[in-house]
Specification:
Strand order of the largest sheet: 12-11-16-10-9-6-5-15-14
CATH topology: Purple Acid Phosphatase, chain A, domain 2
Distance between the termini: 5 Å
Structural class: alpha/beta
Number of strands: 17
Shape: globular
Helix content: 10-25%
Radius of gyration: 20 Å
Strand content: 15-25%
Number of helices: 7
CATH superfamily: Metallo-dependent phosphatases
């Protein structure tokens, strides 16, 4: 493992992003990491989950990050107990047992308002690391699972839990104003989430939910929100190189691609370097070394890390890192150039609802992550 005091070596890591498959099991491009941003099924029945999880487990990736979406009704136990009778079920459903299908998978990291550090370990892979936060929650506009009231204290608590050192944020809901426009020209993303993303400045955020707005927007953050009143300096809308041809839908954020992402990530955080991998969860073990190690972080871990960041800001005479929708100070490890950009990916696979079925290509992201 590299010294904490030496410059971090980085290598290209290919992240395959998909969301809103709704029981579809498309062929996936090759990559190092797979991210599924929810709505794996139509209503979260056990038979649907088993089919989709079998597809995910067979997929050849070192790490697989999965969250639920509003359609995974049985995975939200309180919601299912209150509203489950509104749906027809092929057989009686057990929310606890259904969740275990994902929680106990030997190759899937299932996140539900939780963060984890991932260490890719394949001898033929990039051997990179990243911290990811995942949440299935969406603003409460209809009667679906994992709902929360938009704009209120519940939303602030939810998105304030994203640790400041996070490299990748995976949510089912889009952030407000970014790849969230419906066919009715409505913006349906979460306003509190976009403010949290400005605080954290992840390298990549992956979501879905709004099928018709599948795409990528590269956001340059504003460092002077308090004086200028805006979170974002500029937006670069991705042109899909795979549209209408046999090419991949590739987003190249590497130096070799000619325009590297202006974001160093959170890999300078001490928590990115575990004292011992003996405490990590080995994933994808197939008769040899694990293909990845996963360290799951509790809310206490996140709160402790955020507290350290706040103390550092306060000692420096600055404003503490964001604790609500109207605070926009930067975490102590973010300078004017260190974490300026975030790539926002709406990875919906199924097209707009209604009419003939339409399916979008899977989004492939090449990004440089720190080697461990």
């Amino acid at each position: 493992m590299a010294s904490q005091h030496s410059p971090q070596l980085r290598k290209k890591t290919r992240i395959v992003c998909i969301s809103d498959t709704h029981n579809q099991t498309p062929k996936l491009p090759k990559g190092d990491v797979l991210i599924h941003a929810g709505d794996l099924t139509n209503q979260g029945s056990r038979s649907e989950l088993e089919k989709t999880i079998n597809w995910l487990e067979k997929a050849d990736f070192e790490a697989k990050i999965v969250i639920a979406g509003n359609h995974e009704i049985t995975l939200d136990k309180p919601f299912y107990e209150k509203h489950g009778s509104s749906w027809r079920w092929p057989e009686p459903q057990d929310p606890v047992s259904n969740r275990k299908l994902l929680q106990e998978s030997p190759s899937i990291t299932y996140l539900e308002n939780q963060s984890a550090s991932i260490y890719l370990n394949s001898p033929n892979g990039p051997h990179t690391q990243f911290t990811v936060f995942g949440s299935p929650c969406t603003p409460n506009r209809r009667t679906w699972a994992f709902r929360y009231e938009p704009g209120g204290e519940e939303a602030v608590r939810l998105w304030d839990a994203i640790p400041p050192e996070t490299d990748i944020v995976v949510t089912h809901t889009p952030p407000r104003g970014y790849c969230d426009q419906t066919t009715r020209d409505d913006r349906t993303g979460c306003e509190v989430l976009i403010k949290a993303l400005h605080r954290v400045r992840p390298m990549l955020t992956v979501f879905g939910h709004i099928h018709e707005c599948r795409g990528v927007e590269r956001v340059l953050w504003n460092n002077d929100v308090l004086h200028e009143g805006r979170l974002v300096d500029s937006i670069d809308v991705w042109r899909d190189p795979g549209l209408g041809n046999n090419k991949q839908s590739l987003v190249d954020l590497t130096a070799k691609g000619g325009r590297p992402l202006n974001n160093c990530g959170g890999s300078s955080s001490p928590r990115q370097r575990p004292p011992s991998l003996a405490s990590a969860i080995p994933m994808g073990v197939d008769g040899g070394e694990p293909r990845a190690y996963v360290v799951l972080h509790s809310e206490t871990d996140s709160s402790r890390q955020k507290g350290v960041t706040d103390d550092a800001n306060n000692e420096a005479g600055g404003k503490a890192a964001s604790r609500g929708a109207d605070e926009h100070a930067l975490p102590s490890d973010i300078g004017s150039t260190a974490r300026r950009e975030t790539a926002m990916v709406n990875a919906a696979h199924c097209g707009p609802r209604g009419g003939l079925p339409q399916y979008f290509k899977v989004v492939v992201v090449d990004i440089e992550l720190a080697v461990w």
